[in-house]
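Morning!

As promised:
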Amino acid sequence: MRQTTLILTLAAAGLAAAAGAGYLALRPADPFAPCAGSQVGATIGGPFTLTDETGRTVTDRDVLARPSLVYFGYTFCPDVCPTDSARNAEAADLLEQRGHIVQPVFISVDPGRDTPERLRDFTDFLHPRMVGLTGTPDQVAAASRAYRTFYRKVETGDEFYLIDHSTQTYLMLPGHGFVAFFSRSDSAQDVADRTACFLERA
Amino acid sequence: MRSLFLAAAALSAALAALPASAHEFTAGDLTIGHPYAFATAPGALAGGGFMTITNAGDSPDRLTGIRAGFPKVGLHQTVEKDGVASMEPVEAIEIPAGATVDLRPGGYHVMFMGLEGAPLVAGTMVPATLVFEKAGEVPIEFAVEPRGAAAGGMEGMGHGDGHGGADAASE
């Protein structure tokens, strides 16, 4: 390589390194950086108004006053939703053993069938701390939009319709909002371990 | 002597009633292994059933239907794509020769619908009839189990994955 080209190349590399270092120094510090999959800064979550399983109107501030694992599903779902919810319930138990109280939250995307009573029945069966939320179709749609989740009713010509839906669980921390998500393939132990990392730094 | 006989008979009956690891049903070349369903919440509207089906024969068969005492029963498959889950009704499930097909959470399953008022209760058995193209009608019973190992469920009893042979059901 000719000497001029070499000098220019090194100078460019030096500038890039300086720019990179400058960027890192100026970026807002993420206290959860050591926690795997930290999503601090991602715009997930937001205001919602829903009805809880006692029939009371609640907002996101009411519900998310404590660390929560938020999942969107429906109670008619025999396979995915109970499995994922049971996984979240088990993670809550593992976390409780470590001194962390986390609240599993189940937001129904099936306001047509999931009344507060049905949600109370479903959540009580899974975990004493699990909170079920429903609402009008518009309220549910608004909550789903805030969390960027997907759901779609699949008509079957009878009352036994199905609903396609996203299956991520969102870790919401008071004062921080959304910090991480879990996919349905994550084990209860993984969810508990990663959540504990955030809780120990919150 | 008679009381000894009665005691032995009672013990045999008790043992026969236990959910033994050989909770299976055979029909021709097919063996239906440990059909089970998870217990549902008291007010649940739907539940799911699972099992393995082993075809020890030389020719394929197809599970084309199932009947049970609920307003609606059907075969479904859970499909996941990009984090979105859907359940698709399935017309028939192929059971290739020499293979074991797994109906398991996250894959093929039986869906019991319209439970309202009659939940699936752990410790009970749910009778059903499987319908195969070749093997015909096969009466079975689903054992209802609590969900989750922590709840003392019996899921470890041999209906996990990894039987010998092709597992045609999973994606």
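The CA atoms of residues 84 and 184 of chain A lie 6 Å apart.

Hope this helps with the figure draft.
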